[in-house]
Predict the 3D structure of the following.
Amino acid sequence: MDPTTASSTSTQPAASLAGGLNAGSHHINIHLDHPPHSHHHHHHNHHSHHEQLPHQKHQQQQQGPLPHTASYYRNCTIGGALSSSLRWLLNPIDSVKCNMQVHPKEFPSKSVTAGLQTLYNQGRMYRGVTATMLAYGHQTGMKYPLYEYNKHVLTEMFPQLAEKNKTLIYLLASGSAEAIADVFMCPWEIIKVQLQTSTANSTRGLGAATLALWRQPSPLYSAMTPIWLRQVPGTLVNFVCFEHSVQWIYQTIVFAQQQQPHRPNMTKQDCSTTTQLAVTFGAGYISGIVSGIIS
């Protein structure tokens, strides 16, 4: 499975979507120059401009490029769940893969086209698609907000490590997020495979398959270890590759083209929302290919 994925301050396209949805929340501070009425008044304003009250400092800390608010995590969850929608459409190909592994005689591994034709003739092109939606909707809907949260917490707990070795922060945040998300995916993944590989004349649906799984000795998490071994390595590569791809694209392409003499130190927030989404898409495309090869 190809995990999707995330910028230097955001994660995958799903998290970028959350960033875009929250783009309107950034504050623009406009300072008006007031003529001093007296020397004392000017002196007072001078100090009030440079000294911040504790609550002002707290508010300033909360105003980042990607504010970690409840709405931000909600958007990460929604965007993450929707990012798995391509898998729903590609359910026939996934079904061919599973049947090649379970029924090699009926589905020879040399021909995906023949496998698709067999599924079509048997009327089960989209058998198990509901379980697929539940499995990967849970997985991606959990993974992206958890990655953002874990990355934020780790950066707060180990600021020096985050400054010197961001890659380690990315690895810890993404690995733990994927491991937790897979727990929610595992039962539905088992049901998905059972439905996809059931015989052509089987009439068992999602409900019957779920009840049958519950009645087994080790029902819900019998495939947990293989799923972790399949998912976690790809996610580690995906998120690390994504984060560094975003940094590389901004530094070598975007900033190099948009650099202006009066703004020598551009940041991501100086770019338009369209540019930010384009960078995220490009980095996601690169990291998706790399993680797909790994996993």
